[in-house]
Amino acid sequence: MARADFIQALLAVPNIRRYMVSPDGEWVAWTWVGLHPTAEVYVAATDGSTGPIRFTDTPENTQLVSWSPDSRALIVGQDHQGDERVQLFKLEVALDYPGEMHPLLEASPHYFIRGGQLHPNGRWLFYTANYDFATNTELEAFWLYRHDLTTGERKTLARPLKAGADLVELNHQGTHVLYNRMDLHPNGEQIWLVDIEGQQDREILNFGPDKKVNASWSPDGQSILFLAETGLHRSLGLWEMASGATRWLINDPDRNLEAAFIPENAPGQVVVEEIKETTPRASWLALATGQETRLPALEGGLVPLAPVPETPNWIGYYFSARQPADLVQFSPDNVQPEHFISLTHLWEETSLEPGQLVPAEDFHWLAEDGLPIQGWLFKVPSGRAKGTIVQVHGGPTAHSEDRFNAQVQFFVAAGFNVLTPNYRGSTGFNLAFQEAIKEDGWGGREQTDIRDGIAALIQAGIAEPGKVGVTGTSYGGYTSWCAITRYPVELVAAAIPICGMTDLVVDYETTRPDLRPYSEAMMGGSPAQQPERYFAASPINFVQNIKGRLLIVQGLKDPNVSPENLDVVVKALEQNNISFDVLTFEDEGHGISKPQNQKTLYSRQVQFFEQAFNKADR
């Protein structure tokens, strides 16, 4: 297949961004990216009686937010060209397409929101916003609101002091809201509970000011499942609202628990997601007996979501490098991919075949301080590679995994080997590994982890000196900046930072106000508290060291890593007579997500790296 045809086929592979089973278990909804110019919401019956039904058709990206308690409506959100200022809508679940979107909030709000859940009475909407509606003031903290959709009244239920409150979960009975606070320490997170009148707002789960807790409701609306940092691992417990008692379900330092939940239509079963070297391994835990049943290991990952009503089967989320993310029906007694039933009919939407996709291979190396580091390697199937591209994940609290990635697959098809490293600070290993990035702050040993990975590739004969490039989005963009300003062209010949921070002080001052505590947690304080650390970690202060090729990519609507990062670094590059190229997108925010823009970006990246690496042959 010609390159132009292959990139078109890759970009047409739909990618599931968010998914959610309805409370009654009869429907599954998801956001699909790639089939259309914008992200759209789809729904399918979990019993397989319908194919995927497209519910939205809009000029803006539409994201799934929640189901209504009666499973008859969806709450979805839209921003404007990636500005992240979301308007919420309600769609009735019917078989008509497209569904009618009923606006619940004003368009282009002067604030950011999180959550969005309907009360069983259909009249109240619960969400958090970094806004004081009484004084029309934008806040750093997110306050919790009960919004009366009939009268327009917004009742403030809780007023956290610091940013946080990205958890907003109403119990199925509609009596209490579960939410989180980060008031005590930038590294910490505590769970709070408030009744729907805002009369009893109280902290219920706190394992230390700098420890995090995640929580979700049990279907009975009287108990709360939680995952808490206890020591250097996470433990799973159940908290009872009536007594305040905690029952521990799993407390094993050797297990890397990542997530857990109780399906709405399976109140006796806990789905436990454990991750081993970034690969999910799921199990069912029976609340009554404590017996745990593990799913077999598969290439990629399979996470159970909910049982299919009146059948022994379950709905699952399934993916690997050669299997784009899918929602499938499977039997717990026969967990074999060839027997899975796709609810999305994914492969009918693309001209690609699984055999055209390259598998992910485990690649390990040692950091300079002896810490074992892992990444995923994608190799050109035959012949000598044109070079090697290191694609760095964002976050940094995230990880690369054995998952389909259109950009990676396109790079390999264009003749490049690709490494996606999981540097210290990545999730998917253990809590100690994740927290290790905070010892230095951003720009520390996590960057030398990547440098050492490049050296290991060269030593293994997979990469060649002078033919290695680095790219990534967000923190991956920041890492690309670090690589091109720190390392010689023999290690890093070219970099393409995408929406990456350049001056960490400018970034702190211009980012969304609710994101600043994350910078403080990673850097050990604000720029005023840690000026030397912010200076040393800011690539803008070292652009004079650049010897390799540089292409800067930025979404001009980005509220996260703001375009001011681009403005200030361009001035610094010009002052130091450093040559560079710039590629900007007027209609993108934090990351380049629209298929047409991705096509432009991917083609430009390949062309850029080819030119940079060809220089090494001359």
Please characterize this protein's 3D structure.
There is one protein chain. This protein is an alpha+beta fold and 618 residues long. It has a domain at 358-617: Rossmann fold (3-Layer(aba) Sandwich). It is 17% helix and 35% strand. The strands form 8 sheets. Strands 29-30-32-31-33-34-35-36 form an 8-stranded mixed β-sheet. It has a 4-stranded antiparallel β-sheet with strand order 1-2-3-4, with no helix packed on it. Strand 22 (269-276) and strand 23 (279-286) form a beta hairpin. Helix 1 runs antiparallel to helix 2 (406-413). It is globular, with a radius of gyration of 24 Å. The two termini are 30 Å apart.
Helix/strand-derived class? alpha+beta
CATH architecture classification name of one domain: 3-Layer(aba) Sandwich
Proportion of beta-strand residues:
35-45%
Helical segment count:
10
The CATH H-level homologous superfamily of one domain: Alpha/Beta hydrolase fold, catalytic domain
**Uncertain parts:** none
Provide the helix percentage: 10-25%
Number of strands: 36
Q: Main beta sheet, described?
A: 8 strands, mixed
Topology:
Elements: H1 3-11, E1 15-21, E2 27-33, E3 40-45, E4 53-54, E5 62-67, E6 73-78, E7 87-92, E8 102-103, E9 113-118, E10 124-132, E11 137-148, E12 154-158, E13 168-170, E14 176-181, E15 190-195, E16 201-205, E17 213-217, E18 223-230, E19 233-240, E20 246-250, E21 257-261, E22 269-276, E23 279-286, E24 292-294, E25 301-307, E26 314-320, E27 323-330, E28 341-342, E29 361-366, E30 372-378, E31 387-392, H2 406-413, E32 416-422, H3 431-435, H4 445-459, E33 468-473, H5 475-486, E34 494-498, H6 504-510, H7 516-523, H8 531-537, E35 549-555, H9 564-575, E36 581-585, H10 595-614
Parallel strand pairs: 31-32, 31-33, 33-34, 34-35, 35-36
Antiparallel strand pairs: 1-2, 2-3, 3-4, 5-6, 6-7, 7-8, 9-10, 10-11, 11-12, 13-14, 14-15, 15-16, 17-18, 18-19, 19-20, 21-22, 22-23, 23-24, 25-26, 26-27, 27-28, 29-30, 30-32
Helix pairs in contact: 1-2
